[in-house]
Amino acid sequence: VDENVIPTCLMTFHYINQNKTWTEAQQYCREKHTDLATVTNMKDMKRLINISAGYQREAWIGLISKAEFTRTWFWSLSGVEFNESETNWNPGEPHDRGNQGSENCVFLNHVLKWEVTGCGAIKYFVCFNREY
């Protein structure tokens, strides 16, 4: 089985053990679930961390900075606003390490904090289903 599921009140996160770029992961999540993992509050953040904790692998989430906007963050799921006070950045993040805006996609690192890297990197990823 390459998927673990933890039900939540409003959404269910799915940790996918497949290597994909951020865009490929987004497409997979949109086809099979709702979208890449989206966090709107700290309760969701804790749930996302809980499902990812056993893997110790970097995994894409649905947070992206569009190249034309300098460090303005957006959730992959349209209509969900990014809340700057509800974040889980690794110390020193977000950064770009001098890569001229090429590090625009966010992943959970091995200590379950958010990091930024190029969207073409290959990683596992976390999808979610929205419950209505």
UniProtKB/TrEMBL annotation:
Superkingdom of origin: Eukaryota
Q: Where is the C-type lectin domain?
A: 13-128
Per the record, a Pfam family? Lectin_C
InterPro entries per record: C-type_lectin-like (IPR001304), C-type_lectin-like/link_sf (IPR016186), CTDL_fold (IPR016187)
The entry's protein name is C-type lectin domain-containing protein
